[in-house]
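User: I'm preparing a small set of examples for a lab meeting where we compare how different chains pack in three dimensions. I only have the primary sequence for this one, and I'd like the structure in token form so I can line it up with the others. Please keep the answer compact; I'll paste it straight into my notes.
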Amino acid sequence: MSVAEDAVRRFLAGNEEAFETIVRQSEKRIYNLALRFLGNREDAQDVVQETFLSAYRSLPALRDPKSFSTWLYRIALNHCRARWRSSPEEVGLEESFAAGDPSPELPGQAEPAANARDPLETVDLIRKALMNLSAEHRMAIVLKEYMGLSLEELAAVMNCPLSTAKSRLYHGLREVQRDLKRLKLR
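Assistant: Understood. Below is the structure token output for the 186-residue chain.
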């Protein structure tokens, strides 16, 4: 049993202080998810707060503490989508690869492309390509490639069949690949 699962069980049994353990165990993952999806540190911090407020209110309705992680990711993604839709300006990954954050790598692309001038140019091209994705495709890539979820977990978080999750990931990666080729030709 994970620490978070144990904390959920204790919270559901009436131990209000166990929620602090839940937050400590999950806060960084939720922040990273929101930052990768929204690209803005302030928005990501807001989403973290909104996510845990929603979780606190809804946790008594959680049927299976084993599904807590998937359930929490789903709440966070709903808040990310709402913030992304309500933003009057284009929201992207401008800040998510700033100092201290790992550089993005797409599968099979461990080093910068041969025609890129330097690694920062490659990072910028990837950032632009990700900004052009639909919410569903960006979500699939962020969850799978940056958060490390399995395809089954991806489907559960996105609340869709496994085949749909695979399709969203595949098409999202294809769009990124197409955009990278197009952006490099400029």
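A couple of notes for your slides: The CA atoms of residues 8 and 65 lie 6 Å apart. The chain has a mean pLDDT of 80.

User: Perfect, thanks.
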